Amino acid sequence: MRLELVTAPAVEPLTLAEAKEHLRVETDFTKDDNLITNKIKTAREKVESMAKQSLINTTFDYFLDGWPGTRVYRDRVPDGPGRYWGRVIELPVCPLVSVTTITYLDASDTEQTLSPSTYRVSTGKPGIITLKRSESWPTAPIQTDAIRVRYVAGYGATGASVPSCLKDAMLYALGCLYENRGEEDAAMSRIVRDLIAPALCGRRP
Q: Distance between alpha carbon 116 and the CA centroid of its chain, in Å?
């Protein structure tokens, strides 16, 4: 199982102006603008990695080697979606906005598209795809990347929809990264973890 970025977020949750205000950098001081812009991206990626969330709408491909219920799926996610008796795919990054397509390789290695009428999508946190009671997963031989779920996760198209606790975590990380010129420490990770806790879906990173 692996996750691949398809379309990166179009904007960052924090603007350069917001970042400079937090860092107490004068607006007319532009020498560090590129540095600050890069640190905004790094701070977002830090928060997203720890929260297992996407802050701004982002498109991902989630690859599976077999359908839920197969041995390869249960072995790789012993405490995860396998507990749903082979009928659920729990997506690794949330909040789920939409599922674009689910495709799979059939016995002749031809890509097929699973009909959306065969499954239900539960958006939000966590993002879950559930096979309908009357349906069965199609035949797909177990192999690397046999199944691909393309989906969109995020709080919205702009930073306005991002929870304040996640923005606060970004601002804190940004301050540390800017002051220390990119060096991280255990204290930063601990405080970021505490700040993001209210936005987590029932589990700490």
A: 22
SS3 97: strand
120 residue type, one letter? R
pTM comes to 0.88
Per-residue pLDDT of 12-66, as tens digits, reads: 999 999 999 999 999 999 999 999 999 999 999 999 999 999 999 999 999 999 9
Q: d(Cα 50, Cα 192) in Å, to the nearest integer?
A: 8
CA distance linking residue 74 with residue 13, whole number of Å = 36
Give backbone dihedrals phi and psi of 132, rounded to 5 degrees, phi first: -65, 155
- Nearest-angstrom CA–CA distance, 187 and 64: 35
Which amino acid makes up residue 78?
A: P
Q: Phi/psi of residue 166, each to 5°?
A: -75, -35
Answer for the pair 7, 57: CB distance below 8 angstroms, yes or no.
no
Is the CB of residue 147 less than 8 Å from the CB of residue 72? no
User: Dihedral through CA 191, CA 195, CA 196, CA 200, nearest 10?
Assistant: 110
| Tokens coding 189 | 């990770």
